[in-house]
Amino acid sequence: MSEVAANERVLCLLSDLPDGESRGFPPAPGGFTGLFAIRRGQRVVVYVNSCPHIGLPLDPAPDRFLDAKKTAIVCSAHGARFRIEDGECISGPCYGESLEAVPVRVDAAGRVIVPADAGL
Q1: Is the pTM of this model over 0.90?
Q2: Which residues contact 75 (CB under 8 A, 6 or more apart)?
Q3: Which residues contact 120 (CB under 8 A, 6 or more apart)?
Q4: Which one, of 56, 116, 110, 46, lies nearest residue 80 by Cα?
Q5: What is the pLDDT of residues 33-63, one digit of tens each?
Q6: CA distance 49 to 75
Q7: Which of 52, 70, 103, 114 is found 20 to 30 A from 42 (Cα to Cα)?
Q8: DSSP, residue by residue, 17-69
C-alpha cells in the first residue's frame, strides 16, 4: 500500500463512494468548512462545501449535493447550479463563479486522498 504524506488526508475508499453519487466529509482538524466528493467512474472530483454566493454549505441534507438527475451540483440556499466537472456556476446568483476545487488523487489501494489543509 502506498504511503499517505504528512500533508495529506484520506477522505474515504473509492469503493465507499458509489459511482454517480456524492458524499460530504467533515472539515480538516481545526477547520470549519467541510468537503464533498463526487464519483464518475474511476474519476473523483472534490470541492469545498461552500457556495461562492454567500458561503453557506451546499447540501440540504447529508450527502445531497446533486440534482435529481445527478447532472449538476445544486446549492440548497438559492438553487445555484454548478457543473460537476469544474464547479463553475451555470445558473443562479453566482453565475460565472466557481466552487473551490480541491486537488485529489486515488492511490493504488483505492484511497481518495486530498491535501490535509483542504477547506481551511
Answers
A1: yes
A2: 51, 53, 56, 58, 81, 82, 92
A3: 27, 28, 30, 31, 33
A4: 56
A5: 999 999 999 999 999 999 999 899 999 889 9
A6: 10
A7: 52
A8: S-TT-EEEEPPPTT-S--EEEEEETTEEEEEES--TTT---S-SSTT--B-TT
